[in-house]
Structure formats: structure tokens, C-alpha cells
Amino acid sequence: MWEHLTAVRDLGRVHDIASILVHYGFGDMVHRLGLGGAVARAGKVLPLSQLSESAALPAPVRVRRALEDMGPTFVKLGQVLATRVDLFAPEWIAEFGKLHSQAPAVPYEAIHAQLCEDLGAPPGEVFRHFETTPMAAASIAQVHRATLRDGRQVVVKVRRPGIRPVIEADLRLLQRAAQVFESKFPEWRQFQPVGVVKQFRASLMLELDLAAECHHAERIAANFEGHPEIVVPPVHWDFTSERVNVQDYIDGIPVADTAALDAAGIDRRLIARRGAQTILKMVLEDGFFHADPHPGNVFVLRDSRIAVIDYGMVGRLSQARREQILSLLHGLVDHDPERVGDVLMEWTGQSDADEGQLAQDIDAFVERYHGVKLGNLDLAAMLLEVTALLRAHKLAMPSELALLAKVFITLEGLGRTLDPEFDMAGEAAPFLRAAMFGRYRPRALARHGWHVLGDTARFLGALPRDLQRIVRVVRGGKLKVHIDIDHLKEFSTQIDHSANRLTVGVVLAALIVGSSITLTVEGGPTLLGLPLFGLLGFVGAALAGAWLVYSIWRSGGGR
């Protein structure tokens, strides 16, 4: 019942999205999703010439434009898809990478009341100076410059009023659409719609909480406490909440503005190395990294320090994931295809791939890196090859690893912009060697052995009790095996609908026969010269028959 109510509540939004999809040539998809009425309505509104013009564009371009037209939530979805280099080919990733969050600014009058509520007083009383014209505006928030009472320059990030209900409605639609996609579009299952939407939902809901972004910033700042060359803008918690955050203003040069860097006398090679070492430390040492290090989020200060801003999107790597990355690199360097294959299968968590063909492809992949020293590995190229191999076998990485691959590829591109001779592998080699040697230090081996021993002891301790429970269930004849097959569920639903229609048909036939008999009986009330009850029976039969015909036609049974 709740699903139906939310579906009705979102009906207007559904029609808007369906019209956009039809406009870009995805009418068949909308129809298969059960929105035939929206398709017909969109076809009447949109000129046929416009439809044919849009449908002639390449598929990645059409999808990207459709996401832009559907609004902030879907633009953010496209940005998440741009990180899934394991699911989409380079031409798709390139199009998703063109999506940006720039949006028209909300007038200050529209955010003033919310700001007063969040700050506890009007901005003019909280700050010495507050610029009502924003520096930048994105789909979720916009940024204003301000000056604290003590003279410090800060930026005030304000969430757009009313954005949360809109995003929640879009997320409900995306969740339902993803479930339908996986059940009705077998060709889309390799893109894991439900998993991608789940990852997207968690990321977007966290991004709506501007205080969470500040917690991320402080965690990374703590990890770089002994590295003065890296700057993370301090947070002013007295003014920070879910809908607003305040951090120091960074007066620096955008890292991609090479002309300005040269004019300021900045050593670009030094900046490239420092940037690479910063991200590598986050990934390989800390396991917590900035997941969106594009040029707009990285600035160079006049003293060659690097400042990184906007921690709304972060990635996490557990110790186990970092161990797997090291095992993958070991397998490549030591020419061990089995080790590489084990890591990839652990990442995908799927066993329905053609393991024979996969083993051959992995062996060929490892062979290309045979004899290559660790310091000479092209990490970006290697990650692209891994993701291409997974796509070919319709396998997918865990989301955090796909995010990591995107970060490394972005980082290498940025490094080469600063320094054409930038060597990502050379910068990564010391971190990788230290991590590899760290795996075999006595303390690390002892800690790992202690964990294994503890897990083994817990397993053996619980084993007699678990076996006793299984035997008790078998003896009592209560052992059940549950098999859940989606296609059988759909078939069962169709059988139920058919049985219901058959029952209605039988009742309808009985009603017609009974009414015919009643018409032959004399006496009783009449209407238009006919026995009343017989006439009412025929009217009821006519209505039931019309409903049955309409039901069959609407479900497609008449085609």
C-alpha cells in the first residue's frame, strides 16, 4: 500500500522523466517499464522532427543529455557513474565526465530565513561581513564568502532550501526503476542497477549533510598532521550544521592553471610529486581518501603548499582491500596469474563467469607485465586493462575500488598536465614497497596470526553446537531448502492473474446462464416488461465482461 501511495505522490515527476527519456529516443525503455501512457503523452507534446534529431545522437551523448535535463539528482548520478570505469567503456566515462554540478544561484532572499535558523542569528550579526552574491552555485549547495568577527576570511556553504524532498522523491523513483531494470532488461544486468543506485543513495544522502563533509575534512587533516606542505581548510564548528558549514577561505591558484603557476614561480614538477604522494598516502597508508580530486578542488598556495577542498565525496579502503591490491601487484610482478585471478574473483564476488576463458585472459594480461619492475608499472594503464577485462566478462569491482581506479586515472592525467614527464608509478613505488615489506614484519605477522588463531578458535568452539542444531532439525523432519528464482516468481504471478481471469469468466458464464433462466420465470417484479432480477443479472454480466476484456487488453494479452 505504501509503495502505491508513494507512486501516486511521484506521478508528476514520473511523467516528466518519461517525457525526457522519450525525447532522447528511449521510448521503448519507458514502455517496457510500464509507462505506456506517458509515452503516448510525450509523443503528442514533442515534435517528431525533434525526436528523430535527438535519437540520431550516439547513445552516451543521449544518456548524458537526458541526465542533465532530469535535474540535480540525475546529474549527481551521472557523476557517480563516471567513477564506474569497471562497468562502462571509455566513451561512456568521457560523456559522464562532462556532467557538472553548476546551477543557477538561489537568490539570497530565498536562503536568508534558513541561514538565520541555522546560524541562530542573521548573517549580518554573526559575521563582520557576508557577501550575499555567491562565489559558486551547484545543484545541492552554494558558497558565499564571509569575514569572521576576528577578521578571518571564510567560505559559507549553504544547502539549497527544499532540495531534500526533491532528492528523496527522485531516489524512490530510481530505486523502483533499478529493480524493474534488473528483472525486465537482462542486457542491463551487467551494469548492476540496484547496486549502483544503492551506492548512489548512500553517497548522495551523505553529501546532503554538510557537517559530514567537515568530519571528513578533519579526519584527513589529522592524517596529515605531520605534513605542513598539505593544507586542509579548518572547520568552524560554531557555525556548522547539517544545512550549512563554514571553513577557512583558500586563496590559491587552481592547480590546472599552469600559466598562473609559472607566473608565480611555482615549480610544477614539485607540485605534481606532492599531489601524487598526497593521494598515495591517503590510499595505501590511511585507507581514507578524497574521491574527487579534480582540478577545481585542488589549489596551490604561493609558498608551494597544496590545499585540497570539498570533501563531500570520499572513499574508504579496508585493510583487507589494501592487502588485495598488494597481492594483485605481487602477482603481476612475480608473473603469478593464479594470484591475480584469485584477487579479481574476490573483488567481483561472482562465480557465473566462464572461468576457463577468464583464466586465459588473466594469463595474457599478466604476461604483458612479465619482467616489468614495480617502479616501471603504468598504474593508470594497468587499471584500465583490469576494468576492461572485467567488463568483457560482465564482472564488476566493488564500488570503492572502482572509485579508486577513477582517482588514479584522474591523478595521472593531472600530473601530466603539470609535468609532461610525470611518472605515477615512480611516485607509487616507495609506498608500495613499504606496504609490501610491512606485510612481513614480525609485528604484522604476529598480529595476523593472532587474528587467524582467534577466528579458528571461535569457529571450532561453535562447531559442536551448530552440528547439534543441524542434527536436531534433520531428526525432527523440519529441514527446509528454500530456492528463490526470480523468473519463476514472474511466471507464478502470471499464472495467478490468469487463474483470476478464468474464475471471473466462469462466474460470468454462470451469471449469464442464471439470468437467462430467471427471464423465463413468470411473476415477480419487472422492468421494461422483463423480469427485474434477470435483467440485473445481464447488466452485471455485461459490466464484468467489459472489465475482463479491458484487463486483458491493458496487460497486452490481446496482442
Automatic annotation (TrEMBL):
This is 2-octaprenylphenol hydroxylase. Residues 98-341 form the ABC1 atypical kinase-like domain. It comes from the Bacteria. Pfam families: ABC1. Keywords: Membrane, Transmembrane, Transmembrane helix. Belongs to the protein kinase superfamily. ADCK protein kinase family. The chain crosses the membrane at residues 502-521, 527-553. The keyword Membrane applies. InterPro entries: ABC1_dom, Kinase-like_dom_sf, UbiB_kinase.
